[in-house]
Queue: 4 jobs
Job 1
Amino acid sequence: MTEDKKLVQIFLSPTSPGVYEVSVDKDKNYHCTCPGYRGRGICKHTKFVDARVKQNNGTYPLEISTRVTQEDADRAQESNESFREFLLKFGKIEVC
């Protein structure tokens, strides 16, 4: 992931071993690390994220652990990489 993309959701695949990440760029285009996205430019993961964004008035509803502190949340805002680390540690991983 690069600094021009921000991680939105992490997915665990139940059928093929893999962890995939959906991110969004500054133009609000979704990108996924799964093989299906690389071949088609769209996948079930990006469709899942897009549907949740549409249901939530344009914002992705992050599900974060109650263990998170204000310091953790503040640190997550420092960069896209720190936000990624925050989601890996405190975010809900979807199975899809």
Job 2
Amino acid sequence: MKTKISIAMMTSFSGENYKAKEMLPLINYLYDHSLLEKAYGIWDKKDNVSYRSEILKRLKRSKIVKIMFKAISLLLKNNRRLDPYLVREKAFGLCACMFFRTDAEIVLVKPRPSFLIQKLKKRGKIIVIDASENHPCYTEQMLQEECARLGIPVVHNNYTNQKAIKDYEKAILLADYLICRSKFSAQTYITRGFPKERISITGLETGGILIPPRPISEEEIVFVCVANHGILKGTHKLLKIWKEKKIKNRLLIIGKIYTEMKPYIKEIENLKNIEILESMTREKIAEVYKKNKCMGVLMSVSESYGRTVYECLCTSTPVLVTPTCTCDLVEDGING
């Protein structure tokens, strides 16, 4: 008899978010190989068109959790003490503890909240954690060092929140196995004592369409940085390089701009070749790569798997990255 696997993760199983893009092929694979027991997550209107009816019976999708999440986001919109994402994690964990039951031997979960993992361990489950971030202590250290180098206070976010870090660490200690996104990311756990032989490495799906290389041209290279821009993503370094080195090429900054970036944006506001653009769909970003002679760039100080790097390479565009951003795909001198 085959070992059965269940999933309990704060994600929808269909839709546009990157976790949902992971879930779709995973759930189909597990079901087709008679491995899927059941999955617990968040309802999405695309579920009925994304999955066969026999698979939908295995997916416990909560509309209540979706409503709770919207309420949490509204109530905590301007709250500086409580992070809405961390509160949503705890709310999901509580609901999973109350409503999720499985006969599967193995359960795939996210690291937080650790109390959900504790409960599953007490039921005798083998815990596989989807460690989609670098080890939290590594990321915290890199952010602290970067803020110290810049002479600014340590940025307050999930990556420097001590309660969130300790909860993540507690979960890692309870885990039987980890799934990491890159060799670099796996090493951040191995360095901190997690057994190498209990880590598997797999990248992410983008759901995008591969675009073949464009004809060689004499156009000037346009540099493109796609991210949720903050100190973690290293965008401030990119802006400083453009200003101090007086680089003439266009630089497109695409995506959400966090508050800590505002002083660095102000410093370059007179530079006409730097364009600060709003968030775009993947399809629109792909069009930017297609219509221009582009070079992607991402200078994160900690990145387990830079999805935008992968998406860039899927459009046959080379990319300039820091070591943590390679996704095990960028090879020096070949595509980046």
Job 3
Amino acid sequence: EVIKNIKIKYIILEKIIFQSSSHFEKIIKFSNKKKIKIFVNCPRRTYKIFKFIKNKLNKTRGIIKLSLVGNNWGLCSNSIHFLDLLFYFTNFEEDYIMDQSLNNKILRSKRRGYYELKGKVSVYNKNFKFFIQDSNEKKNIRLKISRGDEKYVIENDKANKNFILKNKGSNMKLFKIPLQSELTLKLVNNIINKNKYELTELKDSYNYHKILFNIFNNKLIKLLNKKLKNCPIT
């Protein structure tokens, strides 16, 4: 309704963008017609720490591996951030294999009418390997990124608002965790004043969302024992 009636050049949307492929396709088609650029606010690709890692990974060859393991980090809700990060490091390809070992217990999301799951998810092909796990066991959230000899482990030091980056030689670097308010202001300023687009465009993020729809919707259909038009994750 907004883009039908108001002239708009740019939109930034929050994940999960839509709960169905048909909604994505409708808005992408309409935004193309209206010449509106729509971005998805998965901002990790704009962080200094991940720009640093990408620069290092680009200097070597091999399969890109990204894994995230931890407890209570919101598998259904937050997986999109890490898929987006994976495809910041490497190109998205339609040819991939999906696998899951999700628990058979449905958890209520903090938002009414939506669900969460725990367990494991993997997506892979000959060029990338993506693995995430939300465990029942209490584990510190640990993100691992590697390619060839370049291997990095990232942990959050929330008390001091830092990312702790460790590489294969046990060297350690600290990167500030950016405040969302400051980050959004910078991203908006770059878009409006510099034509600099750092966030993922909607048409690309749609490909990443489809992966999650396939995995989570299929599991929820079995557990709820009913058809789902929309994937109830947010």
Job 4
Amino acid sequence: TPKAKCLAVAAFQRLIDHAGAIVLSDFTTAKLLAYRSSVEGDAKLASSGTRKAYFDRGKQVVAFGMRVGLDPQQIRAFLDRAKVLWTASPMPNLHPRPVSREDFAQLLKTAGNGPWRTWLLVSMNCCLHLGEACGLKWEDFDLAVGVYHAIREKTRRHRIARAAVLWPETIEVLQGLLALPHRSAYVFTSRHGSRYNRNSKITAFRELRQAAGLPDAVTFDSVRDGSYT
């Protein structure tokens, strides 16, 4: 995605700037170790997962060169030296923060029979982040059987099966949405027939939360984490 590309380029540029590198051989083991120390000591990168991502992205940019025919000998030599880029800190554990029953009921009450009722029910039922909900397609659902099934593309190398048994309430709102004229393969579409942008829906959810009189701690992720219960 454009965002993933920007993050990868930014991480690689940081590595280039730190090493003062022009060619791959400039990334000596000593310079790579110094770069590792700078990332590990960066207070802004408090999460071990974020630090690992910085290391991995830089290596992935170089490794991609072999897919487009660049010198594999130089690339493999760099990747061997770059094995010193790792973090010893354990990866962070997930800490679900599920929305309370009362707050979710208030969100549904505020949504009424409007579009947000569908967003809320589908996202909690299928355990979806807001960006994932924006990307839902009708082919992911079998409303006759009452299931959701899809493959989530986490990275180029990792594909994860997703599945959920749909609640009667979820089937009902999806059937209602399906009955409306729609010009897209996506479940949630704008008036122009295109899929929604995640950032615009974050703003819209904030407005829903404020209308419901709920605190900022109630986020769309906390709705998604409601699946934890």
